[in-house]
Amino acid sequence: MSPDRRSTVGPNYNFERMARSSDARNRAIAMNVEVGVSLYKMHHSMVIADMALAIADQVETQEQVKLDRFVVEMGSLLHDIGISQTIDDRSPEHSMIGANMVRAAGYPEAVARCVEFHDCGGLVPEVIAELALPTTCGKADTLPETWEEKIAVYADFVISFEGEYNMDLWNDPIGPAKATYHYMEYVYQHRRGLAFPREHPQMYYSNRFNQEMIRYCPRAMYETFRPGINRMLNSMIAEGVPIPPIAPLSQWP
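^ that's the sequence the OP posted. Answer follows.
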């Protein structure tokens, strides 16, 4: 998404939508407020929850399955709550911290797993081991497994990588890897003083995950959430959060 597609005209709120929110959604939003989640991350999580429910509709229709929509919505609304307890919002630990926070608040384990698994669409075992991340899910990776986990995680994946990282997930087959690389390059340099290799398994996983899930998020459906994405971007601008620059396709093998 190029900067000139951001909307800076009109109010950055929607009272009518707020009035239609369920008690469960309002509680999750209040929990984010209580711990100090920023306005940008609030708007980020709210549009992701809306997107996740739309993706759930697609999965239920295409796969003929019945999903736990409470888990999908709450996992999406609360996925970044752990950032409130970190110094740097690019700390992968925020997923694990957030999972423990939602457990402490009484949410089901299924919601906690959506929170823990969301970063970069899930982290492969190599990243967990190389960064010595304190996982709480009892396995060597944070890759989503259930439909509910995949949907909540993918909604964050697509909103973040298209809305914030300017990746065309529908037409650029390595777009997810480029966005993942930008994030992981920062983490590895600051944590280990090492370059993040472009051949890392996390890069290949990001592309595979997008290929698996993109069929449930057609571009036309995604564009119906543009007002919410613009609101998120407006909040980023107001808070001085930079949109990360991504290397052009010509610079990638």
